[in-house]
Amino acid sequence: MRVSTKGQVTIPCEMRTKLGMLPCTEVDFILQDDGILIQKQHGSKRKGSKLLEQLSGKSRLNMSTEYIMKLTRS
């Protein structure tokens, strides 16, 4: 691998697949005496989960569930 002008490197596909590193997976960089350890963050939430968490319970509309369902079905 070669470091790009932006300081980026590509993690080979087989390694990403084996580690379950999907797009938007967060990683940690750990400096060691002889190099850098790149480690998948454990317990970090994916982008979709974060968005759902932020939106959960945020509605300010005073509509019943039945009314909302009627709107979405028509």
From TrEMBL:
Q: Report the superkingdom from the record.
A: Bacteria
Q: Where is the SpoVT-AbrB domain?
A: 1-46
Key word Nucleus present:
no
Q: Does the keyword DNA-binding apply?
A: yes
Matches recorded under SMART domains: SpoVT_AbrB (SM00966)
Q: What terms describe the molecular function in GO for this protein?
A: DNA binding
Query: What SUPFAM superfamilies does this protein's entry cite?
Result: AbrB/MazE/MraZ-like (SSF89447)
Q: What residues form the membrane-spanning segments?
A: none
The alphabetized UniProt keywords are: DNA-binding
Per its record, how is this protein called by name?
Answer: AbrB/MazE/SpoVT family DNA-binding domain-containing protein
